[in-house]
User: Fold these one by one.
Assistant:
Number 1:
Amino acid sequence: MKILLVEDEKQFANSIKEYIEKENYVVEIAYDFWEAKEKIELSNYDCILLDIMLPSGSGLDLIPDIHEFQPKCGIIVITAKNTIDDRVIGLELGADDYITKPFHLAELNARIKAVLRRRFFDGKKVINFNEIQIDIDNREIFVNQNKIDLTKREYEIFMFLFNNKNRLITKDAIIEYVWGDDSNNFDNFDFIYTHIKNLRKKLINSGCKDYIQSIYGLGYKFNEI
Amino acid sequence: MKILLVEDEKQFANSIKEYIEKENYVVEIAYDFWEAKEKIELSNYDCILLDIMLPSGSGLDLIPDIHEFQPKCGIIVITAKNTIDDRVIGLELGADDYITKPFHLAELNARIKAVLRRRFFDGKKVINFNEIQIDIDNREIFVNQNKIDLTKREYEIFMFLFNNKNRLITKDAIIEYVWGDDSNNFDNFDFIYTHIKNLRKKLINSGCKDYIQSIYGLGYKFNEI
DNA sequence: AAAAAACTTCATAATTTATTTAGATTTATA
DNA sequence: TATAAATCTAAATAAATTATGAAGTTTTTT
């Protein structure tokens, strides 16, 4: 899953990024208000970590934008203990959770996990969908109880499509989502084709229906039916 | 849907074009006032992006022309922050929205979507018309809940006729609308006949009434009744 | 450092869509 | 009704997109 971290202190931001990347999230950092705004409008995130004290504006002002452009996305507000605002505590501004600096990375991680679980998986740890079972915490996918080994990229692509059932996902969106900031390096879709092919093969070989539909000229779609 | 971008800075114009073409709009650029005026009077657009600072005149002076020749067309004014005029902000000049440079492409895109939705679809995301349902965002058309797969061209032609119910649409207009600047390459209507035929067949096969009437020697019309 | 796994690139094949062609049908007009 | 022009249709060809297997890199694991 993909996370945006909005935080102006570079060193602090990087250490958070490093930590949560180890937890297998794709992480991007926006170092100021406007960079964050652009990313929110252009890219897809599943959770946004929002420091509200930014040099160029309050992170809180990004919340309406997040709701508009990414209604499914979770929001965790990062705030210093002394600047904390009652509205944040009450989460009246539309965030899912907040955490006060300083905090332990493991705590942040736990909260991200909880928010994502609530937002995307109905609070469950294991998702059931027809013949498919997904163990979120372990990033494992089963077809009729038989585990299939997906690589990181395959898993990310699968989950992106799965979490957007019946919606057209363009190849550009997939690249953006899975490769994050590195997505500019690509000038063709060959590797997408390959990953999709391998992903499909693994699923189908385990007796899974082919839910992934190619939409000519546009992208892919996970068909619920 | 088709968009005209009136903007003299070539590079800027091209990057906008590239971006919104990815969103499946047909895009034409007019690089100066008079080129814009000609296009507005001759062609069909659903939305016009109007930079008001043009070397050959103010884009605002094109607005009456747009109203006269294309009453359904949306207008979004592009303006530099410092040259902004109160009348623009109040939209008293007849625009639907405005955006100040610099802006994010995603923001422009969101505004285009909103203006088109307001102008053409009554603000709705899904259109219902007798047995037809149209999911604008996903570019999907259903007949009595059964999805019919239209190709890009078929979809564009269908929407053009649909959005101009009971009005005669000439074959030239269709070519102009769907193929944009490339429309000069065609010297006969054979391919239109084919696309219309295939479109009709898909619709009728799904149990849809044949709303598309041929008007001999002139073009086609989407009959509401 | 070697081996294994994962990722990307490349060449080629398969598929889907777009356009052209040619013949059949319909319409307008005389 | 005869004729020409316009339109419709299906089939053939061309163009664009996607799928595939294999080769070459890079990254990770041992």
Number 2:
Amino acid sequence: MFSKPLVAASLEPLMLSLLREGDMYGYQIIQRIKALSDGQIVWTASKLYPLLHKLEATGVVTAVWQPSKNGPDRKYYRLTPKGRQALQQHQREWSDYHALLAKLWGPDLSAT
Amino acid sequence: MFSKPLVAASLEPLMLSLLREGDMYGYQIIQRIKALSDGQIVWTASKLYPLLHKLEATGVVTAVWQPSKNGPDRKYYRLTPKGRQALQQHQREWSDYHALLAKLWGPDLSAT
DNA sequence: GCTAGCTATATCGTTATCTGATATATCCAA
DNA sequence: TTGGATATATCAGATAACGATATAGCTAGC
């Protein structure tokens, strides 16, 4: 289990990287991140949807409703070009932060 | 400049790693992290002291007042054994998170 | 045709967190 | 004696986080 601040810091970048795999709807995203992290990362709806709405409002993703045969309609989210840029910026930021920690913590950090 | 959530997530681990260098007082810590990060990380007093107090309350650091010849007294903080453990745990958590991102983002992440 | 459970999105209201502004005080130089 | 650097500390308004709750479609079993 990751600490609360780390989970908060990782929410948006992880979300964007998931959407790079292709269009996804909220419920699916929750299952996907759980599977990818072997159950280590568990997102809840109240954490997910506000972020998706914000990303949509800022033009980082677009959303389209699609009917489903086995349940309620689904809202599919798609990364926009701006979203890809945002992801790259998150990745750059992450790299920079990692470099800083490596500087402070020594080379053993890279040995992951 | 790091994003707000990332700054929040990094505050405690960075603080502990700074204190591993030796005893430090608050004002000094602010200068030190700024210098180490080449001005990228700028902590404020209102961010710093609440955390230091919390770390002291949980036994992660101890504090002693020391007189100063060129200004007000200084409160020096020292990492306890429990603090070193906490730092190691942060480092482990960081490694795990880094591994997860590497899995999602590809090998280019390690090339920092 | 009822109900239980899964699927699916969404928001509310309380709690927690964050941080700019402010307070207090010492020292030194102009 | 005024201003700036040093030094710690807290408050109060703003922001963010999230468990609980609402709504609703679909399917299976009875």
